[in-house]
Amino acid sequence: MPFGWFFIKKGTPNFNLSWSESVDESLCFGWIDSTKKTIDNERFKQYFSKRKPKSNWSKVNKHKVKMLIDQSLMKEAGYKSIEIAKENGSWTILDTVERLEIPEDLEQELRRQKGAMKYFESLNKSSKKGLLYWVASAKRDETRNKRISEIVENASLQMKPKQFRYNGIQQGLEIIATYRLAKLHILTDIIGCLNIYK
């Protein structure tokens, strides 16, 4: 699979290609951006590679492609990647995620477990979209079924799967709570010692 790293030095006066523009260029030729890595305080590199045939198309990239076509900037390789995506379904697979539509297999399993569907429906839009994308992005049936089972099992317990359960704020609050509890224990021990020597 062809790939390349795009190296960028921050603050370079003669360099004015934005991340969005670099993505536009890659889409024109049937490529896609991926990992961004920091090299040092002044430089970073962005990974680009040829789009895999079954790589799902996001709403943002589909919008970009439309603009590129309207501006007659799309190249033959770019058109080919779109054609392949439309043939294998990866062009539209995320449309249902954007509309927050629950796939039939997930819905059936959620309804089989008491309280699971009610909990899932109570989630905010962002959480639902994350879970639906997780299911839709599975490359194999075994992976998809495993993810559905994990979602349903946790939903029946009124929770999200572990990797979706905690965000940075929640983790920070837990750390603060643990710290405060530790201080309380220390203070309690000190008071206990003082009482002994009264």
Q: Quick summary of this structure?
A:
The protein is mainly alpha-helical and 198 residues long.
Counted beta strands: 3
Q: Which structural class do you get from the secondary structure elements?
A: mainly alpha
Which sheet architecture does the biggest sheet show? 3 strands, antiparallel
Q: How much of the sequence is in beta strands?
A: 5-15%
What is the typical, i.e. mean, pLDDT?
A: 81
Order of helices and strands: EHEEHHHHHHHHH
Helicity range: 55-70%
Q: Low-confidence runs (pLDDT<50, min 5 residues)?
A: 171-175, 183-191, 193-198
Distance between the termini: 77 Å
Which strand order spans the largest sheet, edge to edge or round the barrel?
1-3-2
Pfam families: OmdA (PF13376)
Organism: Maribacter hydrothermalis
Protein name: Bacteriocin-protection, YdeI or OmpD-Associated
Walk me through this protein's architecture.
The chain has 198 residues and is mainly α. It contains 10 helices and 3 strands, in the order βαββααααααααα. The protein has helices at residues 19-28, 59-70, 76-88, 95-98, 104-112, 116-122, 125-136, 141-156, 162-165, 168-196, and strands at 3-9, 31-38, 43-50. A 3-stranded antiparallel β-sheet has the order 1-3-2, covered by helices on one side. Strand 2 (31-38) and strand 3 (43-50) form a beta hairpin. The longest helix has 29 residues, at 168-196. The protein is globular. 13% of the residues are buried. This is Bacteriocin-protection, YdeI or OmpD-Associated.
